[in-house]
Each structure stands twice: as structure tokens, then as C-alpha cells.
Amino acid sequence: MPRKIHVQTRINGEEVEFLCEPRQSLLEVLRDELGLTGSKEGCNNGNCGACNVILDGVLVNSCLVLGVEAEGKEITTIEGLAGPQGLHPLQQKFLEHAALQCGICTPGFIIAAKALLDKNPQPTEYQVRHWLAGNLCRCTGYDKIVRAVLDAAQVMAGKGGND
Amino acid sequence: MTTPTVSGQEASTAQPQYRVIGTRPIRHDGLDKVTGRALYGADIRLAGTLHGKVLRSPHAHARIRSIDVSRALALPGVKAVVTAQDLPDVTDKVADLVEGPIRLKYLSNNILAGEKVLYKGHAIAAVAATSPHIAEEALALIDVDYEVLPPVLDVQKAMQDDAPLLHEDLKTTSLGEQTDKVSNIASHMQFRLGDVEQGFREADIVIEREFHTATVHQGYIEPQNATALWDADGHLTVWCSTQGAFTVQEQLAEILQIPVSKIRVIPAEIGGGFGGKIWVYLEPVAALLSRKTGRPVKMVMSRAEVFEGTGPTPGSYIRVKMGVKRDGRLTAAQAYLAYEAGAYPGSPITAGCTCIFAPYNIPNVLIDGYDVVVNKPKTAPYRAPGATNAAFASETVIDELCEQLSMDPLEFRLLNGAKEGDRRADGVPYGRIGYLETVKAAMEHEHYRAPLEGPNRGRGVASGYWFNIGFQSSVSISVNADGTVSLVEGSTDIGGTRTSVAMQAAEVLGIAAEDVHPIVGDTDSVGYTNVTGGSRVTFATGWAAYEAAQDVKRQMIERAAKIWEISPEEVIFADGVFIHGKDPEKRMTFKELAARIKTGEPVVGRATVSPRGVGGGFGTHIVDVEVDPETGKTQILRYTVVQDAGKAIHPSYVEGQMQGGAVQGIGWALNEEYFYTPEGHMANASFLDYRIPTCLDLPMIDTVIVEVPNPGHPFGVRGVGEVPIVPPAAAIANAIYRAVGVRMRQLPMSPGRVMKAILSKGGN
């Protein structure tokens, strides 16, 4: 078995250390080593977006990042969005708009949408659709997801959100 | 985003006023699902877990001469290897599972191949090791000696006398009788109504066309998974993502030949199913590996394994002939449907035959259906199984008839559409149905009247039917001292049904939806409940919740009577308030009475149901497309789904079913397809190459919920989930014709095929 490597990183604002094999993906580390199972595996090759996390401000598929690449980075996962003050507006709007059915793609969509709104707080419908094209949902037909993201953008623009 | 709701004419006056039903509360499991806390099958983690991986056939058709696992077992970290040798012999057994009697050998051989592999991806052996990576390495060390055989991949070729045979012992069943003919045709069925030859003689216009549809996959985002622990005392516990904990229990009992009482199935959250998570795949294998190692074993499929090793829905060949009088009235319809069952018998051919002309009242009908095995994965149900293929054929032939009649296609449907009392070709007369109401609502919709301008654009419509099944459901409800109730149901929740079930209990009890706490029980904590399928959960499990709530209500009335020292008949319950019949000043809300629950025994209501008053549903879709004449690519410009839901318990999730189903249909229509090499290898087993629709491919999906209550349900609920996948392929084909003048008769209508049709226009 290959020797494990020590990695030091920040996840959801906290210092985290872990040991991982060089071949383990960040998704595998999050889920199997750190117990952060909110990031989901749908394809393990970057096609579905269910494992989306934000790595140093960049939206990535964590299945395409190696665990060792997390060294010295800042990572946001779905578990880091809600705080003591409540849900992130995106989470709230996904609930209000019934923008999920089975829910397996939901963490990835919410993380991807957060990355979009971080860059572009007032996206058009087309911009939302273009940005979220890397996330697959098989249940909803996307209608309610797109509406939830547009609505969350409105709320965050009006009230500054709770981000 | 308000959705118009159209009520049936008779129904609108009779509709009762509801307090909870028809509202849009936030779903009970929503918080866990937006925060990442919800536990799906692959999130289950037990101490000491081993990881299992499956060795799969590299050949589409081969005889297994030998399997040598010794090198794999020698790899450090490998704890066990299993093959079909570890499964009990079930050669002559028949079991009643999922959809009726099935030869158990087929199911067992699909779990781990016996003498032959019948498709690429067919499971052969499995390894348990200390890490998934080691298990995967060990697969490469299993030596299998194959005698490779020629595969047959196409349903029409498989039906020929000289086709390679998948099963040497499969004899065709024809019209219910087993023949002596050994063939890939597992069965031939027929529906006959009136005299179809006479009907065609009466017709002024007769059109006959042939259609082909490709194998497509359910495409749920969560791969199959299972974690099993076979204890030393012989008890097996399985955690998995399934559409039915009890069907997993039953299948395990049959495949492993152990009593159901030894098996507990704990359903995790499920990341989509659409019919694909009813049959078991990994569960028995994880169980065998656990029995061998004495440790929990977890198995999760890769995406490629999902495509290659789990049930897609059939490719098909369909021929349809329909005749009309000049006045537009249908006189006769005939269909020939051949569905690919995959490696083992059991395609949804009966449903295809039943649905193909279901929206119409036709006096003379003849339908022949064939269930045919081919060297592809054993098919599994997929949302209205068999109906989309069938509707693609019949609904595009109807569009051609309308063109020749110069008749509006929705007017044609009003003229010929099925209504209460009309008889389907399979002999079943319709009860109160809302098909014509969906057609009228579509005609009245702004979308249908809006001008569609611009070159290469066209509008199409199509309708579709799907059943609703009853089956068994169980619910128990216990009253908490704070006035909330806890509800345990047996239906795994794929799309928000905890809430639609809870809302029906809340309506009866006069409490808020939020005051019902629904959970999905495991096989040891709730009564038998059939699968989440057949659009049945909100209908049947919702009915069980209604009955269980009635039971709670009766007990609460008795409690109020006891407190007031009157008889239960003297207690009035209205709008969630218990009222003293003789002294109306004395009253207690449900909450106030619940606070006094310790005045007697706890209150637990229960109900088990097996409802018969099923409400099949119809949908009518309108689509605008633009076809790029340079590439053949079809863009969906606008889409409207009109559907009779009977009564929408939670309209947002009814809309969600309509939108999601329509989009799956759009994917089936335009993109989705298993590409096979001549050797029978799927060439596109990834989400990159098997392309399901993304949000960039789509517009918003408009919905119109028509409500013609199902008289067979206390709140009028019909099956909702499956109907919306039925019309899209035909509606889009009809729109493409109006856009560029080509009739597409093969699915998917991918850019290449549309381009080819455009280029050969006039030439054919």
C-alpha cells in the first residue's frame, strides 16, 4: 500500500489535518476520511457536479482534485454554508421553491450557485443556466432550481444575505 | 411562478375546501437535504467496514469455462471473493416478486452470472477488501476463461430463427400457452377489440409507419449501493438506497433462500430511482461477502457500472397502422410492438401494448406484443415503462392523420379522446378520467394560441396515458403531548412524498403540515409496504395516512369524551377543534387535547390499505422547437405540460413531477441512447457521452395542473409521477415536422439523424 501523506488545510473556516494516500481524491478524503458526506459522488469523473466544492474561491469537482492538493488551501463544502444565524439564502430558496426532489444533486447545485453569486451577484437566467450546466439533476427539469437561484440573488442583493 | 389550476367542469362545484391540501409547505426532509446532512446509501458508515467491488464481463455473450480467484485472494487486504458458486441453486424455483412470477434462476444469474454471461457488464465475481482501491486491484487478479459467443443486440435480429440464442431453455409463451419453440422471443401477447379488418375497410385514410427507439437509462444521479452485515446469529441487515425496503427483503430471501424474518432492510435516503432501484443488484453480493468475512461490507457502483450493469429501459421496434373517416373519427388501430427485455425476459411489453392507444376511444383494435431477450443488461422499469416508446409511434401517426384531414390535432383529440365508460383495448373500461379536460386546457392555454414566428420553428402536441397502482401500504401515527404527531410510513421517499403523505394526515386531524413528523420506517418498524412505483405513494400511502389519521381522530374523540364525561357520540370534531356537543362553550383544539394525553393510554393510530380505486392519468404537452438546418440540432424554445392530477396535494411537487418527467422525455427524444459496438460493448457509459439534458438545454417548463378528482380516493388523488414522460418524444417529433418538414421515426432524434432526414428530404 502506498505510504500516506500528511495534509494540512482549511475546511469551512477550520484548520483540518488528515492523512491520505496519494491516489485518493479530495472527494474521497472529504467523505471517507473526514465524514463530510454532504458532497456526493454521482460519476467520479467530473461530469455531474454532485461533488462540487469551492477551493480557494474556485468551483471544482472534488472528484477531480487529489486529496494531497488540498495542502494549504481554503475549502468550502455544503456543510459550511449554514451558520448559527440560519440557512444560507440559497438553501432557504431551494426549500421555498421546492427546487429538489431526491436531493442527491442539491449540495452540488447550492455550492455551484454560491460560487456563481460570489462572482456575479445579479445573474440573468441565461447566466444561471450557463453556469449550472456542469451540474446534472435528473428529477426536477431544472425549472425550480433556476428560479431558486434567481430568487436567492434578489434576496442577497436586497438584504446583503447572511454570507 | 403561479401555476394555473384548472378544475374539471363537474368537479369544480363539488370540490371541498381544504386547509392543508393544496398548500405548499416546506418539505419535512428539506433541511437535511440542503445542508448535506441527509444520509444516502453511500453515506452509511459502520465500524470495521470492508469494501466490495464487482468483476464484470468484458464480453456481451460468452460461456464461462472457469473462474480462478486464487491470485485475488492472495493480495494483501483482500478478505473474501464470491462467485455464483456461493449462491444457492434455485434452478427450478419460481418466485412472486415485484411484477409477478419470475424464474428465480434469471434473477440469481443476473446477480452473479452462472454458466454464461449475457451482456457486457454482467457481474461474475466480487471481492471484499480493506479499501475500495485494493478491492479494485484484486478484480484484475481474477482469471476467467471465456468461450466467446456471437451477441445479438437488435430486437428484430434476435427474433429471427437463426439468431444466436441467449437461453437454450427459453421456450416462447404465446397467448398464455407455452410452446416447444426455443427462441429469444420470451412471450407473445395480444389485445383484440372489435374487428380491425372491418375497421380499416370503413376508413377513408389509413396510415401505417415503422418506428425504432434506442435503449435509454433512468439516469438517476446516485449510483446503486448496499451495505450488508450478516451477523453470527444468522441475521442479515442491509442498508441501501431502494424504491422499496420490503421488496429488497423479499428478493434477498428468495435469492439467498433464507426466511424474510432473518432479514432487516433499512432504507437510506435515495438519490433518484425512476423504476431503476426496485430490482436488487449489489445487496445479495454484499450479503454473501459479509457472511464470508463476518464484517460489514459496503459496495457502491461506479457510473459506468450503473450504465452497463443495471436496468435500462428497452429499445424497441414498433409498427402502427391507424384508420380514420373523413370526419376525423378513428375506425381502427393496429400495432405490433417488439421490446428488448435485455438478457432475461421481462420487458414492459404489456404496459406498452396497453398504453399505445389508451387516450382514444377506438372501436376496432388489434395489438400484438413481443418480449425478446438480447445481449444487453436486463431491463428495469423506467417511469411509465414501455409507454413512451409506444406513444412516440401512435401519437406521431395521429399527427400525420390530422395533417391529411387538415384538422387541428387537439380538435382531433377532443373528437376521439377517451372518456368515462370507454373501453381500452385490453378490455378495461375507464372510470372518471380527465383526458378531455387536459386537451381543452391545452387548447385554451396561451401557449397554443401564441404565434410562433421565424424560420425552422414548429409547434407540436401529443398526449399520453399512464396507470396508477394501489398495492399495499402501512402507516402508523402517534400523538405527542405537544400536539404534534409522529408518522411512520413504509414508502421510501424519492421526491417529497413524506410531505404529501403527512399533509393528508394533517388535513384529517386539523393540524398544520409542519405538526406532522413523517419518517420512513425499515422493515422491522412499519407494516408491509410495496414499492415506491406505479405513481402510487401519494395515492396509496397517502390513503393509509388518511385512514390512520381517522383512527387517531376516533381515539382523540374518545379521550375528549372521557375528560368531559360524555359519550364519544356527543363530541363534535370540526376544523381541528373538539367540541362538547351539549355545551359548545367547552372546546379543545387538537393541541390542547394532546397536552392532556396522559389522562389515559397513549394514542397511536394505524392503518393498512390495499386500495382499488386507482386513478390513471393523462397528460397533453405543447412544445415549440427550432431546428438548426446546418447541424440538425433541435432546441426546445417553449414547453407546456398539462396534466390531470386528480387533486394536487402539494402543487409544487406535482409541478416538479410534471417538469422533471417532461425533461426526461426531452432527453429521451433528443439525446439519450446506448451506443453499441458490433461486439456489443456500450461505447458511451459516462454522463459525458450519455448526455442527459442540462439546464442550458432547456427553457422553463410551464405546467397546468388539471384537477378532475379520482372518485376512488378520499381526496381525489391520481397517479402523477409517470405520465409526464410519455408525450414528449411524440410532441417534439411533431414539432420538428412543422419546423423542417421531416417525419422522424427513430429515437433519439439526435442532430445527425435529423440532419440526415433533412438532406434526404424529397429523396425518400
Give a structural overview:
The complex is a heterodimer of chains A (163) and B (764). By secondary structure, chain A is α+β, with helices and mostly antiparallel strands. The relative contact order of chain A is 0.15. Chain A contains five helices and five strands. Chain A folds into two domains: 5-79, Ubiquitin-like (UB roll), CATH 3.10.20.30; 89-156, [2Fe-2S]-binding domain (DNA polymerase, domain 1, Orthogonal Bundle). Chain A has a five-stranded mixed β-sheet with strand order 2-1-5-3-4, sandwiched between helices. The mean pLDDT of chain A is 95. In chain A, helix 2 (89-96) crosses helix 5 (143-159). In chain A, a hairpin with a 2-residue loop joins strand 3 (52-55) and strand 4. By secondary structure, chain B is α+β, with helices and mostly antiparallel strands. Among the domains of chain B are: 429-468 and 614-764, Aldehyde oxidase/xanthine dehydrogenase, molybdopterin binding domain (Aldehyde Oxidoreductase, domain 4); 471-609, 2-Layer Sandwich (Aldehyde Oxidoreductase, domain 4), CATH 3.30.365.10. Helices cover 27% and strands 26% of the residues of chain B. In chain B, strands 11-10-12-20-19-18-13-32 form an eight-stranded mixed β-sheet, with helices on both faces. Chain B has a seven-stranded mixed β-sheet with strand order 4-8-2-17-14-15-16, sandwiched between helices. A five-stranded mixed β-sheet of chain B has the order 1-31-30-29-21, with helices on both faces. Mean pLDDT of chain B is 96; it is low at 7-13. The chains are: A alpha+beta (163), B alpha+beta (764).
